[in-house]
Amino acid sequence: MIKNLIFDLDGTLYPESSGLEDECQQRVYDFFVAKLNISMDKAQQISENLLSKYHYEAQGVESELGLSQAEFLEYCCAVSTDNLAVNTELQELLVSLPQKKFIFTDSTTSHVNDVLTKLKVDRTLFDDIYDAEKGKFAYKLNPAAFNAFCDYYQIDPKEGMLFEDKEKNIVLAKSVGFKTVLINEQADKNTSADYYFSNINQALEFLKKEKLI
Ligand SMILES: [Mg+2]
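Above: the input record for the complex with magnesium ion. Below: its predicted structure, written as tokens.
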């Protein structure tokens, strides 16, 4: 029985095509330029190197560059939410579902609040926001991050359903026992997720109608 609904934020509660992640990537370069006093070309190269080594730059900024992860995330996640549309249907669907709800993100709580405000989805519908800092900067690329999340809230993964747009995270979540739902605009059929949908509204409507949640 699913007692906990766990939502990724970026690319999951709003479509990836909104362009927020592109702006975030630009802010990563800008941060390196400003903090390391280097050229944009050099900043892009550093970002590429960190991505190929860690899959997420934040993981390497402290150990490789001596910069603060918290400061890096606060700066890079401070993207404009202008392109996001109000999602009244999502608000209504969330209100109608009795499970506990969490946001589990590798970004910051201030970014979550900005996005929810723009979507007009009430923050109080969620029991908690588990951001990078709460997760002690153990990002979702690591299975330990999913176990730490469950330990933090005393959740049995078998009673949890995770909504995510990144296949890599779906695979890890599934390996620790979560039911998984891939949210992807291409509705990629080659997923290891239990279910896949092109957007969050479709996912919640279907799962509710079929009494799967
Ligand atoms: Mg995401």
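Notes for the reader.
Strands lie at 4-7, 100-104, 128-130, 160-164, 179-183, 195-197.
The mean pLDDT is 94.
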